[in-house]
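Input C-alpha coordinates:
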Protein backbone atom coordinates (compact mmCIF):
# COMPACT_ATOMS: atom_id res chain seq x y z
CA UNK A 1 0.00 0.00 0.00
CA UNK A 2 1.35 3.43 -0.89
CA UNK A 3 0.35 6.90 0.22
CA UNK A 4 -0.17 9.08 -2.85
CA UNK A 5 0.99 12.67 -2.98
CA UNK A 6 -2.33 14.22 -3.87
CA UNK A 7 -6.03 13.59 -3.97
CA UNK A 8 -6.61 12.97 -7.67
CA UNK A 9 -7.64 14.50 -10.98
CA UNK A 10 -11.43 14.44 -10.85
CA UNK A 11 -12.15 17.38 -8.54
CA UNK A 12 -13.57 17.45 -5.03
CA UNK A 13 -12.47 15.42 -2.06
CA UNK A 14 -11.32 11.88 -2.79
CA UNK A 15 -12.89 8.73 -1.41
CA UNK A 16 -11.06 5.39 -1.43
CA UNK A 17 -13.40 2.42 -1.15
CA UNK A 18 -12.26 -1.08 -0.21
CA UNK A 19 -14.71 -3.68 -1.48
CA UNK A 20 -14.67 -7.40 -0.67
CA UNK A 21 -13.56 -8.75 -4.06
CA UNK A 22 -10.24 -9.44 -5.76
CA UNK A 23 -6.94 -7.74 -4.90
CA UNK A 24 -3.84 -8.32 -6.99
CA UNK A 25 -0.17 -9.01 -6.32
CA UNK A 26 2.21 -6.10 -6.90
CA UNK A 27 4.90 -8.68 -7.77
CA UNK A 28 2.93 -9.44 -10.92
CA UNK A 29 2.48 -5.76 -11.73
CA UNK A 30 3.68 -2.84 -9.58
CA UNK A 31 0.67 -0.86 -10.83
CA UNK A 32 -1.52 -3.18 -8.72
CA UNK A 33 -0.39 -1.38 -5.57
CA UNK A 34 -3.21 0.09 -3.50
CA UNK A 35 -2.82 3.85 -3.16
CA UNK A 36 -4.54 5.92 -0.49
CA UNK A 37 -3.94 9.64 -1.17
CA UNK A 38 -3.17 11.80 1.84
CA UNK A 39 -6.37 13.22 3.26
CA UNK A 40 -8.61 10.76 1.43
CA UNK A 41 -11.89 9.65 3.01
CA UNK A 42 -11.72 5.85 3.37
CA UNK A 43 -14.75 3.54 3.42
CA UNK A 44 -14.54 -0.23 3.94
CA UNK A 45 -17.49 -2.07 2.38
CA UNK A 46 -18.17 -5.29 4.27
CA UNK A 47 -15.31 -7.74 3.60
CA UNK A 48 -13.23 -4.83 2.38
CA UNK A 49 -12.48 -4.35 6.07
CA UNK A 50 -10.32 -7.51 5.93
CA UNK A 51 -8.18 -5.80 3.30
CA UNK A 52 -7.84 -2.50 5.16
CA UNK A 53 -6.69 -4.45 8.19
CA UNK A 54 -4.14 -6.37 6.12
CA UNK A 55 -2.82 -3.14 4.62
CA UNK A 56 -2.77 -1.21 7.88
CA UNK A 57 -5.34 1.31 6.66
CA UNK A 58 -7.78 2.79 9.17
CA UNK A 59 -11.17 3.36 7.49
CA UNK A 60 -13.23 6.40 8.38
CA UNK A 61 -16.45 4.38 8.00
CA UNK A 62 -17.23 0.67 7.77
CA UNK A 63 -20.52 -0.32 6.13
CA UNK A 64 -22.18 -3.61 5.22
CA UNK A 65 -24.20 -6.58 6.35
CA UNK A 66 -20.85 -8.33 7.03
CA UNK A 67 -21.71 -11.54 5.20
CA UNK A 68 -18.37 -11.46 3.38
CA UNK A 69 -16.24 -10.37 6.34
CA UNK A 70 -13.82 -13.08 7.47
CA UNK A 71 -12.27 -11.26 10.44
CA UNK A 72 -13.88 -9.89 13.58
CA UNK A 73 -16.99 -7.83 13.15
CA UNK A 74 -16.29 -4.12 13.75
CA UNK A 75 -17.38 -2.61 17.02
CA UNK A 76 -20.71 -0.82 16.97
CA UNK A 77 -20.55 2.94 16.94
CA UNK A 78 -20.67 6.02 14.78
CA UNK A 79 -18.03 4.72 12.37
CA UNK A 80 -19.85 1.42 11.75
CA UNK A 81 -23.06 1.25 9.73
CA UNK A 82 -24.69 -2.17 9.86
CA UNK A 83 -27.08 -2.99 7.01
CA UNK A 84 -29.70 -5.74 6.72
CA UNK A 85 -28.70 -8.62 4.44
CA UNK A 86 -32.00 -8.46 2.50
CA UNK A 87 -31.62 -4.97 1.04
CA UNK A 88 -31.85 -3.38 -2.40
CA UNK A 89 -28.48 -1.56 -2.44
CA UNK A 90 -25.30 -3.64 -2.59
CA UNK A 91 -22.66 -2.81 -0.01
CA UNK A 92 -20.51 -1.03 -2.61
CA UNK A 93 -23.31 1.38 -3.53
CA UNK A 94 -23.86 2.08 0.17
CA UNK A 95 -20.15 2.88 0.52
CA UNK A 96 -20.32 5.23 -2.46
CA UNK A 97 -23.36 6.99 -1.03
CA UNK A 98 -21.49 7.56 2.22
CA UNK A 99 -18.51 9.00 0.36
CA UNK A 100 -20.76 11.23 -1.75
CA UNK A 101 -22.58 12.57 1.31
CA UNK A 102 -19.17 13.39 2.77
CA UNK A 103 -18.54 15.66 -0.23
CA UNK A 104 -16.39 13.29 -2.29
CA UNK A 105 -16.72 13.33 -6.09
CA UNK A 106 -13.68 11.27 -7.03
CA UNK A 107 -13.73 7.60 -6.02
CA UNK A 108 -10.90 5.06 -6.19
CA UNK A 109 -12.42 1.62 -5.71
CA UNK A 110 -10.44 -1.53 -4.96
CA UNK A 111 -11.74 -5.09 -4.77
CA UNK A 112 -14.62 -4.53 -7.20
CA UNK A 113 -13.26 -6.17 -10.36
CA UNK A 114 -12.65 -9.86 -10.94
CA UNK A 115 -14.25 -12.76 -9.13
CA UNK A 116 -18.00 -12.96 -9.65
CA UNK A 117 -18.95 -11.56 -13.05
CA UNK A 118 -22.24 -10.14 -11.74
CA UNK A 119 -20.33 -8.13 -9.13
CA UNK A 120 -17.98 -6.82 -11.82
CA UNK A 121 -20.90 -5.75 -14.03
CA UNK A 122 -22.56 -4.12 -11.03
CA UNK A 123 -19.38 -2.19 -10.24
CA UNK A 124 -19.08 -0.91 -13.81
CA UNK A 125 -22.73 0.16 -13.72
CA UNK A 126 -21.98 2.13 -10.57
CA UNK A 127 -19.18 4.08 -12.29
CA UNK A 128 -21.80 5.21 -14.81
CA UNK A 129 -24.12 6.25 -11.98
CA UNK A 130 -21.34 8.37 -10.47
CA UNK A 131 -20.59 9.94 -13.86
CA UNK A 132 -24.25 10.83 -14.44
CA UNK A 133 -24.09 13.11 -11.41
CA UNK A 134 -20.77 14.75 -12.24
CA UNK A 135 -18.40 12.55 -10.26
CA UNK A 136 -15.91 9.95 -11.41
CA UNK A 137 -15.11 6.48 -10.15
CA UNK A 138 -11.99 4.47 -10.94
CA UNK A 139 -12.20 0.69 -10.52
CA UNK A 140 -8.73 -0.77 -9.91
CA UNK A 141 -8.26 -4.32 -11.17
CA UNK A 142 -5.41 -6.57 -12.30
CA UNK A 143 -3.25 -4.05 -14.14
CA UNK A 144 -6.34 -2.32 -15.52
CA UNK A 145 -8.51 0.61 -14.52
CA UNK A 146 -12.17 0.95 -15.52
CA UNK A 147 -14.04 4.23 -15.37
CA UNK A 148 -17.00 6.07 -16.91
CA UNK A 149 -17.33 9.58 -18.28
CA UNK A 150 -20.57 11.40 -19.13
CA UNK A 151 -20.60 14.49 -21.40
CA UNK A 152 -16.93 15.07 -20.81
CA UNK A 153 -13.49 13.66 -21.31
CA UNK A 154 -10.29 12.13 -19.98
CA UNK A 155 -6.87 13.43 -21.05
CA UNK A 156 -3.55 11.67 -20.47
CA UNK A 157 -0.15 13.34 -20.76
CA UNK A 158 2.49 11.75 -22.93
CA UNK A 159 4.23 8.80 -21.27
CA UNK A 160 6.27 5.77 -22.20
CA UNK A 161 3.36 3.54 -23.12
CA UNK A 162 4.13 -0.15 -23.61
CA UNK A 163 2.97 -1.82 -26.81
CA UNK A 164 0.02 -4.15 -26.47
CA UNK A 165 -1.52 -2.44 -23.42
CA UNK A 166 -5.07 -1.75 -24.50
CA UNK A 167 -7.42 1.21 -24.15
CA UNK A 168 -11.04 0.29 -24.86
CA UNK A 169 -14.08 2.53 -25.11
CA UNK A 170 -17.70 1.37 -24.97
CA UNK A 171 -20.95 3.29 -25.07
CA UNK A 172 -22.88 2.74 -21.87
CA UNK A 173 -25.76 4.84 -23.17
CA UNK A 174 -27.83 3.69 -26.15
CA UNK A 175 -25.96 6.23 -28.30
CA UNK A 176 -22.85 8.29 -27.56
CA UNK A 177 -22.22 11.15 -29.97
CA UNK A 178 -19.18 13.28 -30.61
CA UNK A 179 -16.67 10.67 -29.47
CA UNK A 180 -13.06 11.83 -29.91
CA UNK A 181 -9.96 9.70 -29.35
CA UNK A 182 -6.97 11.87 -30.36
CA UNK A 183 -3.49 10.54 -29.77
CA UNK A 184 -4.49 6.87 -29.75
CA UNK A 185 -3.40 4.33 -32.37
CA UNK A 186 -6.89 4.26 -33.92
CA UNK A 187 -7.85 7.92 -34.05
CA UNK A 188 -11.62 8.43 -33.90
CA UNK A 189 -12.88 12.01 -34.21
CA UNK A 190 -16.53 13.06 -33.88
CA UNK A 191 -17.57 9.43 -33.95
CA UNK A 192 -20.78 7.78 -32.83
CA UNK A 193 -20.80 4.68 -30.66
CA UNK A 194 -23.85 2.56 -29.81
CA UNK A 195 -24.60 0.52 -26.72
CA UNK A 196 -24.76 -2.72 -28.72
CA UNK A 197 -21.55 -2.30 -30.74
CA UNK A 198 -17.88 -2.79 -29.80
CA UNK A 199 -16.09 -0.60 -32.31
CA UNK A 200 -13.98 1.00 -29.56
CA UNK A 201 -12.35 -2.17 -28.22
CA UNK A 202 -8.57 -2.76 -28.28
CA UNK A 203 -7.11 0.66 -29.00
CA UNK A 204 -3.64 1.61 -27.75
CA UNK A 205 -1.69 4.50 -26.27
CA UNK A 206 1.21 5.66 -28.45
CA UNK A 207 4.61 6.12 -26.77
CA UNK A 208 5.42 9.74 -26.00
CA UNK A 209 2.06 11.01 -27.27
CA UNK A 210 -0.59 12.88 -25.30
CA UNK A 211 -4.03 11.34 -25.77
CA UNK A 212 -7.66 11.71 -24.77
CA UNK A 213 -11.08 10.09 -24.83
CA UNK A 214 -14.13 12.33 -24.76
CA UNK A 215 -17.84 12.29 -25.56
CA UNK A 216 -19.99 15.30 -26.37
CA UNK A 217 -23.28 13.59 -25.55
CA UNK A 218 -23.56 10.25 -23.80
CA UNK A 219 -21.79 7.99 -21.34
CA UNK A 220 -18.65 5.99 -22.10
CA UNK A 221 -17.06 3.12 -20.21
CA UNK A 222 -13.29 3.36 -20.60
CA UNK A 223 -10.69 0.74 -19.68
CA UNK A 224 -6.97 1.54 -19.70
CA UNK A 225 -3.67 0.26 -18.27
CA UNK A 226 -3.13 0.96 -14.59
CA UNK A 227 0.42 2.20 -15.23
CA UNK A 228 -0.88 5.17 -17.26
CA UNK A 229 -0.72 8.58 -15.56
CA UNK A 230 -3.90 9.73 -13.84
CA UNK A 231 -6.09 11.40 -16.49
CA UNK A 232 -7.30 14.97 -16.27
CA UNK A 233 -11.10 14.97 -16.13
CA UNK A 234 -13.16 17.54 -18.04
CA UNK A 235 -16.92 18.00 -17.86
CA UNK A 236 -18.82 19.96 -20.50
CA UNK A 237 -21.60 21.24 -18.24
CA UNK A 238 -22.78 21.22 -14.65
CA UNK A 239 -24.44 18.18 -13.16
CA UNK A 240 -27.06 17.86 -10.46
CA UNK A 241 -28.52 15.25 -8.16
CA UNK A 242 -26.77 12.73 -5.99
CA UNK A 243 -26.50 8.99 -5.44
CA UNK A 244 -29.56 8.95 -3.18
CA UNK A 245 -30.00 8.36 0.52
CA UNK A 246 -28.42 5.46 2.33
CA UNK A 247 -30.87 2.55 2.28
CA UNK A 248 -30.90 0.71 5.60
CA UNK A 249 -34.27 -1.01 5.21
CA UNK A 250 -35.15 -4.57 4.30
CA UNK A 251 -36.17 -4.72 0.65
CA UNK A 252 -39.90 -4.15 0.05
CA UNK A 253 -39.59 -6.39 -3.02
CA UNK A 254 -39.59 -9.37 -0.67
CA UNK A 255 -43.18 -8.71 0.39
CA UNK A 256 -44.80 -9.95 -2.84
Amino acid sequence: MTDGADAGAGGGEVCVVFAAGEYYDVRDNPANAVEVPRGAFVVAADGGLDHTRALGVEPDVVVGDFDSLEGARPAAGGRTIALPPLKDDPDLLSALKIGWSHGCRTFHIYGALGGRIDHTISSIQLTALIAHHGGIGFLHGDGTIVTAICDGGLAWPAFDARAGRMVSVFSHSDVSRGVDEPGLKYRMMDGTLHGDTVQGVSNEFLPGTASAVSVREGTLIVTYPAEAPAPQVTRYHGFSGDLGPLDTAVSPLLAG
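The chain is about 15% helix and 30% strand. The helical segments are 48-55, 91-101, 117-132.
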